[in-house]
Amino acid sequence: MSQTKRFLAVTVAAVTALGMVGACSKETAGTKPAADGQINLVVDTFGDFGYKALVAQYQKDHPNVKVELRSVQKLDDYKPKLTQYLAAGTGAGDVVALEEGILNEFKTQPQNFVNLLDHGAADQQANFLPWKWELGKAGADGPLIGLGTDVGGLAVCYRKDLFAKAGLPTDRDAVSKLWPGWDEFISTGKKFTAASTGAKGFVDSVTTSFSAMLSQAGETNFYDRDNKLIADSNPVVKQAWDTSMKMVSEGISAKVPTWSKDWEAGFKNGSFAVTMCPSWMLGIIKTNSGAANTGKWDVAAVPGGGGNWGGSWLAVPAQSKHPKEAYELAKFLTTPESHVGAFKEAGPLPSSPKALDDPAFLALTNDYFSNAPVGKIFGEGAKSLKPVVLGPKHQAVKERAFEPAMQAVEQGKLTSDKAWQQALKTAVKEAK
Amino acid sequence: MTSSSVVRSSAAARAAGDRVPWRSRLTRADVKFAPYFFIAPFFVLFAIFGAFPLVYTGWVSLHDWHLIGEHTFVGLGNYTALFADPDFWNALKNTVGIFVIATVPQLLLALMMANLLNRKIRGRTFFRMGVLIPNVTSVAAVGIVFGQLFARDVGLVNYLVTALGLDAVDWQANTWSSWIAIAVMVDWRWTGYNTLILLGAMQAISKDLFEAAELDGAAPRQQFWRITVPLLRPTLVFTVIISTIGGLQLFTEPVIFGNGRMLGGTLGQFQTVTMYMYETAFQRFQYGYGAAIAWSLFGLIVVFSLVNLLIVRRAAR
Lengths: 432, 317
Fold this sequence. Notes:
The complex is a heterodimer of chains A (432) and B (317).
Chain A: H1 3-29, E1 39-46, H2 52-61, E2 65-72, H3 75-88, E3 95-99, H4 100-107, H5 130-135, E4 146-148, E5 150-151, E6 156-159, H6 160-165, H7 172-178, H8 182-194, E7 201-203, H9 206-216, H10 235-249, H11 261-269, E8 272-276, H12 281-289, E9 297-300, E10 312-315, H13 323-333, H14 336-346, E11 349-350, H15 353-357, H16 359-362, H17 374-382, H18 394-410, H19 416-431
Helix pairs in contact in A: 9-10, 18-19
Chain B: H1 2-15, H2 22-60, E1 63-65, E2 71-73, H3 77-83, H4 86-117, H5 124-130, H6 133-136, H7 139-149, H8 156-163, H9 175-203, H10 207-215, H11 220-231, H12 233-248, H13 252-257, H14 273-283, H15 287-315
Antiparallel strand pairs in B: 1-2
Helix pairs in contact in B: 2-15, 4-9, 4-12, 4-14, 12-15, 14-15
C-alpha cells in the first residue's frame, strides 16, 4: 500500500471514529430540558456559610427550584477552581461566593459576572452596611457584582482550662481586661508560657495575630488606594510585622502553621491556649476541637480594638443558565433574616445593619463556647467596622509572601530581617 | 521463504486487480482498512486529549496569557524569563533531588523484593498481591496518613525519634527532612508496582540458565548479579524510564505533605516543578508562563529519560 493510501485510510478511520465520539457526546452531554419547569441551581462556597437550613426553606417556598450546595474546605483550593470554571465558560455554580481577599482580583474582570443591578438589586441597598454594598461594585459607577454575606468582626478565642492551669483569670470580661493592647497580650503570653500547662505555646502562630493587626489598622495594608503595592513603605505593615516578630522572640508562639495537621490536632490536644477568631472561625474551632472539648473554649475581646478580617459576597457568574433565578436565590440568602440564620448555623457575622440590630441576633449564645453571648460580642463593634483597602492581590501577598516568611522565622530558618526582605521580594512577584 | 511467497501472491493479485469482482474488492478493502478503524479510537482520543492540549499549551506558552483576562503574543519571552527565574531553578533542584533519593532506593528495593518473591516461599501469591496494595490505595488517604506520621507535634515518626532520645524533627521546615518524608511516601506507593514488573520479567528467565550455573558452582548471589540482573536489562530500562517520567512530575505527595498548598514549605524547600507550574497558572493566573513551565518540564523529562537510558544500559551490561 502506498503512503498516500495509508494516510487516507488512517484519516478515514479517524474521522469515522471522531464522528462516533461526537454523536455519543451529543446525546449524553446535552442539557436535559427541565421537566415541568424544574430549575436546578448550584451554590459554590468555601468553608461553611451556614446555608443548609436556609436552602431547605427556600426549596420549600419555591417547589420548582432545586438547590445544590457545593463547598470546598479551603479558600486556597476554591479560588483556582472558580477561576478555571470562569476561564472555561462552564462549570461554575449559579451563585458563587467571593471572599474579600480575592474579590478585587475578580472585579478586574467584571464581564464574567452578571450585573445584579440589571435584575433590580438596587432596592436591596438599605439592607447592607454602606461600605459592604460599595465593595460589591466594580468601580463607583460600575456593575454590582456581589451581594454582601458576612463581615469578619474580630475576637480572641481562648481555652479556659489552660488559663486556669496558668493561674490566669478565666472569666471572659476579666480576660478581655488582661490585654487592652498587643504589648499586654504578649506579656500575658509570657506569664502563660512560664507556667507549666502542657501547651506548646500561648498563641497558635503569629500569622493569625499579624492578620488581626493588619485588619485593625484601618485605611490601607499592602496596597494604597490607587492599587499600588506599598508593602515596603506602609508603616502599618512594618508595625504589625515587628509586633509579630516580638511574639516569636518572646517565645509565646506554639509555631503551628494555620491549617496544618499540627494545628488541627492542636485544638484537641491543647497545644495552644489562644487563637484569633473572626466570627467565621468559631465553626472551624468547634470542628477541630471536637465534642470532647465542649465548654472549654470561650470568647474574649481582641487586643487593640476591633477590625474587619474576612467576609464575602455572593455573585452570579455570567455563564449561569438561570441568572434571574440565581439572583433571586442570592437575594434571599443575603436578606437580614438569612444573615441571622446563617450566623446561627455556622457563625458568619451579618453585614446587614438590620440583622445586627435584631434582638434575636443580639440574644444569640454559643453553647460550645461556654454559652458566650456571641451575638453581642461580635455584633457590638460590627457596625463601626472600617474596611481596609485591599488591593487586587491582597490575599496572595499575605498568604504567599508574608505568612511563609513569618513561619520561616518560627521554624528558625530565617532571621527576622532576612525574612522581611524575603517577604517584600515575594510580594513584588505576587503582585505582578 | 514466507516473505517471497507473500510478494509473489500480492504481485499476482495486483496483476489480476482489474478483473476481480466488486464483492471481493470490498473484502480486500475490509482486510486492509478494518485494522486502522479498530485502532482509531485510541488515536482519536489521543489526538483530542493528548496531542491537542500539548500543541495548544505550546501556543499558550508564547503569550502573556491571563487565565480570565487578556492574551498578548510575546514570542519566547516566557522561556527567557523562566531560565532567569530563581524559583524555577529551586523547584527543579527539589524535583531532581527528591527523584534521586526516592528512585534509587526504590528500584533497588523492588529488585530485592522481586527476587525474594521469585523463590518458593510460603504464601507466595499472598505476598505478590500484597506488594501492590499501597499502589491501589487512594492518594488522598496516603497523604493524610503520612501527613500525620510526619507531623511535628503529633506525628508517630517524631514519637519514635524522641523515644530514641533524639530531638524531634520539624519535617516540613528543613530541606533534607522534607525530601526524605516525601521520598518515603513515593517509595511506599511505587516500590510494589516496580516489584511486580521486575518479578514478571524474572519469571520469563529460563530455569536452565540457573541450573547450569548451579552445576558450575555459582552461589545464589552470583546467579542474581550475573544472570538475573543482566537478563532484566530491558525491564530495568522500562522501570527507570517510567520512574523518571513519574518522578519529574511529582505533585500529589509534596502538595499533601505541605497541607495542600503549592508553596512547598515556607521557603519553597519542597516545591516541585509541577507545583510551581500549578501555582503560576492557577493561583497567579499567569497561564502563559505556566504553559512555558509545562513545556520546559516536557523537554527536561525527555533529556532525563535519555540520560537514564544510557546510564542503565551501561551499568547493566
